[in-house]
Amino acid sequence: MSYDVDALRRTEFPWANSGETKFLNHASTGPLPQRTVDAGVEWGRLRANPARVPQDLQFNTLARGRELIAGLIGASAEEIALSVNTSYGINLAAFSLPLKAGDVVLTPDAEFPANVYPWMQLAARRGVEYRRLACGDGVLDADRLEQELERDAHVRVVSVSWVQAASGARVDLDALSKVCRLHDVFFVVDAIQGIGPLVLDVSKTQIDILSCGAQKWLMSPWGSGFTYVRKALIQTLEPHDVSWMAVQGSDDFSRLLDYNFKWRDDARRFEFVTLPYQDFAGMNASLELLNELGAANVSAHTLRLAQRIVDWAEGRSDVTLTTPAASDRRAGIVCLRPRDPKATSGRLHAAGVTHSLRETGIRLSPYFYTTDAEVDAALAVIAG
Questions:
Q1: What is the pLDDT of residues 155-170, one digit of tens each?
Q2: What are phi and psi of 215, to 5 degrees?
Q3: Is the pTM of this model over 0.90?
Q4: What are the pLDDT digits (tens) for 257-268?
Q5: β-sheet bridge partners, residue 312
Q6: Are 374 and 302 in contact (CB under 8 A)?
Q7: Distance of alpha carbon 44 from alpha carbon 288, whole angstroms
Q8: 383 Cα distance to chain centroid
Q9: Is the predicted pLDDT of residue 1 greater than 60, yes or no?
């Protein structure tokens, strides 16, 4: 099953056909589908008079968000805590997991800062050792992890980005998860660059805590995202930061002063209200679109375009492919290093191609509504 890209562009991304820009920068910030824009406008109208936004609408919006996220990644809604960015979930892992002085946290050495600084702060506060491993392409493979865990029994957490923001390289979550389970090590994942271009089922790939902002590949408003906490782990963890709605009975606003300090049984114990309801209403609209198209179809279209870029780069001598060529080692990000990346970036901007200039050169990240013609136009500019 597939979908009609032309029809999708007309209804949800009309600007894409207007010539305004060729948008190949979803790894930075994704655009909003028209239905998401409409949801934001409607919530702005409602919020003008708060009487138009009753509690049921507010909390049902959040509940729907948990359901949609759970369906997308193969979780249950009880395992989803809504959050405003990826950093929230990594901080939750750092300061809620039962770690003590002398324990070791491992990450690869080329992680995005969101998966570095919380662990550095944990080390400074609690005497936990934070260790970065030098890895090829910044990617930690199962053999290397096995060796490290065999060498040091103090390792308690492994935290990785599913897909590296700078290089586009991805780890094998299944393989790393199996090694972590074998050694009784917590497995934490920053999934912001993976969910959307790739399909994930956490009922099959055991991850303890997974965090994902929704503003990139989930094409949702800034300030929306989620943290997944594995069900068996939820009731063993206490939030580091305490929200007044993280406790049982807090849905009953007529009894808030009873002060029943008993955590909720589900992942809402980790949510920090008040959440931006309007942003989550927008997220829900975007997730509904992904649901209608089908996660597998979205991924297939995205990976096909990424392969088109890879094939082009491998056929040239004036451009270096810095993303792994093997399809099972990358996702929707492809990084190219032309002879003069800065000048090439300038030409791309002048030609209306939205992209990123990163450490590894030009970063292109097409998505499910991007056309072959848009990719080819960008490659023609890079070719000079």
A1: 999 999 999 998 999 9
A2: -80, -10
A3: yes
A4: 999 999 999 999
A5: none
A6: no
A7: 20
A8: 31
A9: no
